[in-house]
Amino acid sequence: APVIGVLAVQGDFREHLAVLDGAGVPTRAVRRPSELEGLSGIVIPGGESTTIDKLTRIFELREPLQRLLDAGLPAYGSCAGMILLADRVVDTAPGQQTFGGLDMTVRRNAFGRQVDSFEADLDFAGIEGGPVRAVFIRAPWVEEVGAGVEVLARSPEGHAVAVRQGNLLATSFHPEITGDHRVHHLFAQMVTEYAEKARANS
Ligand code: GLN
């Protein structure tokens, strides 16, 4: 079965590993380059995007992961992970880099500070069974998207907070801490489809 890695240098990677594990998806914490080998997908968790950026460079994960993403590896970024998958970031820290891939601009800390964290139930395109519980913690929002980016969910004020473009999925919020695992199921489905296609073409 395809293995989904979770980038485990900082942030709430344990929660993502637990959700995937609970769904019966083979997972692996990724801290060193060799742990990227053979993955069919990767989750970039929430945390602090500037720290994750720095640590992936220190742990020499940045270049190999960038290569895999450029080659089409499916990725799901939550919160800080969304920032790391964005081509453009507003209110970035000095020197902050992203992997990019999603043709969009995100605004970091857009919803305010830690005390402005909030929850909401959001309709999510492609997810059945009612709205998705979304927890926002110093979350970014998506300020503008290119033509290839599909907006899957919006905040109550109408900001785009979930997007997909090809093999990349991103949410401003944290489905890994709500007990509602439908976003992870959606990603696992994207990974399975990609793995099957890759097998058929090889
Ligand atoms: N504000 C954080 C950042 O800029 C993201 C917060 C989160 O991931 N919960 O990376």
TrEMBL record:
Superkingdom of origin organism: Bacteria
Binding positions (L-glutamine): 47-49, 108, 137-138
Record flagged with keyword DNA damage: no
Catalytic reaction list: L-glutamine + H2O = L-glutamate + NH4(+); aldehydo-D-ribose 5-phosphate + D-glyceraldehyde 3-phosphate + L-glutamine = pyridoxal 5'-phosphate + L-glutamate + phosphate + 3 H2O + H(+)
EC code: 4.3.3.6, 3.5.1.2
Residues at the active site: 79, 174, 176
Record key words, sorted: Glutamine amidotransferase, Hydrolase, Lyase, Pyridoxal phosphate
Pathway of action: Cofactor biosynthesis; pyridoxal 5'-phosphate biosynthesis
Classification via InterPro entries: Class_I_gatase-like (IPR029062), PdxT/SNO (IPR002161), PdxT/SNO_CS (IPR021196)
Subunit structure: In the presence of PdxS, forms a dodecamer of heterodimers. Only shows activity in the heterodimer.
NCBIfam families, alphabetized: PLP_synth_Pdx2
Similarity section: Belongs to the glutaminase PdxT/SNO family.
Official protein name in the record: Pyridoxal 5'-phosphate synthase subunit PdxT
Source organism (scientific name): Kineosporia mesophila
